[in-house]
Amino acid sequence: MANSTVGAGVLSLPFAFQATGLLGGLILCVVVGITEALTLYVLSKFAERYKARTYVELVRRALGRKLAVLLSSVLVVAMFGACVAYLIILSDNLSSLAAAANLPRWIADRHRITAFLGIGVLLPMCFPRQLTALARMNQVAVLGFLVGAGLVAYRGFTIAFSRPDPLEGVELLVVNYDSLFAIPIIVFGFNCHSTVVSIFHELEPTPTVVVPVLPSSPSAFRRFRYIPRPASRKLVGMLSVIMASTSLVMAVYVTVGISGYMAFPDNVSSNILMSFDRDDIMVQIARLAVTLIVMGSYPLTHHPARAGFEHLVKPATPAGAVEPLDSDVDALPAGVSRLTSVAFTLAFVLSSTAVAEVVTDLGVVLHLLGGLCISFIIFFLPGLLLINAAILKYSRTVLEELEGQEDGQGVADEEQTLPSSLTQPLLQRLQSARDKGIKKSGIIYAPRLSWQFGTALLVLSVLVAGVTLLTVILG
């Protein structure tokens, strides 16, 4: 989970802190981190309820095929952009390392390095269909994340405290137009929602390790109202994974963001490693560590993109047909050939490599991805899932009460049994919503906490997308 979260975002945190100030960046990281952790739990909860193995499969079963097709398209675009960002980082890091090692210019050439990485290294890593096949690489990547972040933070604080006043030029809180650019970057930094359903599917049913502050039994959560209440031991384990990984990533992000901003308060690059001296040995080691992170992140990011593409090309399930819920996760979807899957992987890796040969500005890539595609994945769809669940429960509760009233009153007129606020058109929509939710009824107000939280997530998604479009248009 931690490796699914970390990646290109960590290198842009000092840039975001410069735009919002020391305290502003800290507050933004904490708020976004907690919000995204909650939406991770929401996705895991509904993945268990609908027995889904991928994000696309979850949306299709809960919200309908049209939204699943839209999600598939967004996933392909968003994950493609993220992989371009990863290749930019890899190329920058390895070309710098090669130059520092005084290797021949043709070896240190950025374009040759990009091509070799895409075709010779990353392409073979993208063919496995199970995330567990990358487990060893993921462990190395998380270790690389900690080492790299630690070295960057140490060097950043060293530079800052070498000045008479370490806080010279550093502002605590910045609220201006430039601050808007920080929001999508931090939103992107905590994103791992595209793979969380697959991770939950592969998680063991009974967790062996649980965060100490959490009870191991689901029944212990039932007395609480305003915190997650997992219904199974597996979901308790997933909650532990989410809490541990989010806390770790947040702590490292804040440390890197603060140290990088303090080191270069006036002008920090969108890739903090590019701000340091190229000949600094410690920074070069950090580059190598970050390279390991990104090498693990690329195939993890490709995984949901491939699943999204396969859903797009998968033949529609005939009306009334029952889709199998427990098929092997390693198997191809029905109607999708292995040749089609392999061809997509080839096209995905080769085209992302080609784009990374041309595009070199990491900040622009992360800004667009975080504000448009990623906000749809991490805020909008979890919000709809919560609203859908609230509508389902509310409609069933109301209709069961009405049926009970009719049974007790015998031949009483139906209109007399309806609550004053429940009109006949609304009753018909509730009857449609009882089994299919918003797929049949559309959005109906349901006086439940999950409906309110889901609506807040929808509003947040629209605001983040609006901020991104505004900054892109105005420049």
UniProtKB/TrEMBL annotation:
InterPro entries: AA_transpt_TM
Predominant location category: membrane
GO cellular component: membrane
Membrane association type: Multi-pass membrane protein
GO molecular function: L-amino acid transmembrane transporter activity
Keyword Ion transport in annotation: no
Chain ranges of the Amino acid transporter transmembrane domain: 2-205, 235-388
Entry keyword annotation includes Zinc-finger: no
Subcellular location: Membrane
Alphabetic keyword roster: Amino-acid transport, Membrane, Transmembrane, Transmembrane helix, Transport
Position of the signal peptide: none
Residue stretches spanning the membrane: 20-43, 67-90, 110-128, 140-161, 235-261, 339-359, 365-387, 449-474
This protein's name: Amino acid transporter transmembrane domain-containing protein
Organism: Gonium pectorale (Green alga)
Taxonomy of the source species: Eukaryota, Viridiplantae, Chlorophyta, core chlorophytes, Chlorophyceae
